[in-house]
Amino acid sequence: MAGGATVTWNTRFGFLMAAIGSSVGLGNFWRFPYTAGENGGAVFVLVYLGCVILIAFPILIAELAVGRHARRSAVGSTRKMAFDAGASEMWSIAGWVAMCGGVMILCFYSVVAGWVAAYVFEMATGGFVNAPPEEIASSFGNLVADVPTVIGWHALFMVMTVGIVSLGVTQGIERAVTILMPLFFLMLVGLVAYAGLTADMGAALEYLFRPDFSEFSGQTLIAALGQAFFSIGVGSAIMITYGSYLRRNDNLPQSAGLIAGADTMVAIIAGLAIFPFVFALGLDPEAGPGLFFETLPAVFAQMPGGQWVGTAFFVLAFIAALTSSISLLQVIVSFGEEHTDFGRVGSAVFFGAIIFMFGVGAAFSGGFFDVLDKVSGNILLPLGGLLIALFTGWVVSRQLMRKELDQASAGFFGFWLFTIRYLAPVAVALIIIAGLMSMFNISLPFLGQAEVATD
User: Can you tell me the distance from the alpha carbon of 60 to that of 23, in angstroms, rounded to the nearest whole number?
Assistant: First the structure.
């Protein structure tokens, strides 16, 4: 077996900021508000919280445990843990699937991040000030159609991502996130405070926290499952990779709880930053994806100080995208360091260039963009999560997993083992089924025609 990683996070705070940053992505800003809007508001939030606790959280613990045990890339870690458990090293397929899914996400995610960067510039320079709503709504379509501009912003974003990852785990990733994430939280709290002072916070609170159970349906469950799974960032090999840099004495359940809790908190707070403006202006909370790039910019353009509030909002989204993208690139760079002679910088530049070229293809072709999105989100990521759940729940011995989770109480370990063996596989299988149904336009009475999307 090849040697493992020698680098570790400088501080637990740095690890938590990196892991939380990887979880907090555009899904918290872009997808959570409109998914909540489309699926019953508060009842969706309630089901989502349950899915985080019972599904995403146990898989997150499992991924961190696999990474810390083996201290290798996602592929190397799953292979070594299988070897140490006396199982077939073919179980490294779990790492391969997760890594491929994460890389595929970055190929189009960086394009979306480029759209966000373009909106930061447009907001900051006053491009939307006093513009009529219909003009602002059409500007998004114009941006997507302007392929050279999209590629330019996509290139800038990838250069930033590659640059940070090239500097290393501690000097690059950890240093960046310990600056970016506190700034992110400070700006987010400020935006919510502004929304509370100037918009309809009461309506937003009622919408998000007063459930109407008549709104519950099978579609609500599937949407909440998908959002919880992808928002936390499991199934993409990120947490296996980041876990490989943990020290032996780090408390995995506690760290996983902080990561899942922070990501969930950000998603809900993002709703509190967005919905007050939506309700204050009588807009439709079920507006869908257009809420982010069309409705909200029009709101910011018409409100006092909206230029700077809108700029802050899109800077927040850009930071969320950047911290997620560096974690996705780190997954494949870790693999490159382990299996090639490229070294860190060479791996970051090489794989970054390949991802950039696939992103160019996604910018040119909406169909190719959708293929990357659907294959990664509907198949690879949930399949990676399912394999990790089966691997750690049924293949790796109970004794070995107990050793990795030695700081957990017996009761908590029993809870984790039950969820990872039974609840998580069934739930993730439902996500896969719903995703395949969505891809092939199939609907069932209970599941509906579900849409599963990535972070």
Answer: 11
**Tokens 């729940």 -> residue:** 393
Q: Is 448 helix (H, G, I), strand (E, B) or coil?
A: strand
User: How far is it, in rounded angstroms, from Cα 285 to Cα 3?
Assistant: 52
| Arch. (CATH architecture) of 12-439 | Orthogonal Bundle (1.10)
Contact 424, 389 (CB under 8 A): yes
Distances (CA, A) of 103 to 295, 354, 429: 30, 10, 22
The rounded Cα 130 to chain-centroid distance in angstroms is 34
Q: How far is it, in rounded angstroms, from Cα 184 to Cα 193?
A: 14
Cβ density class 313-326: b for 16+ within 10 Å, e for less: bbbbbbbbbbbbbb
What's the pLDDT score for residue 287? 67
In whole angstroms, what is the distance from residue 200 CA to residue 192 CA? 11
The H or E element containing residue 371 is helix 366-374
**DSSP label at residue 7:** -
Cβ contact 417:393 at 8 Å: yes
pLDDT in tens, 49-101: 999 999 999 999 999 999 999 999 999 999 999 999 999 999 999 999 999 99
**pLDDT band at residue 6 using 50, 70 and 90 as cut-offs:** low
Q: Residue ranges of the domains in the chain?
A: 12-439
CB contact at 8 A, 228 and 419: no
Question: At CA 47, angle to CA 42 and CA 48, rounded to 5?
Answer: 90
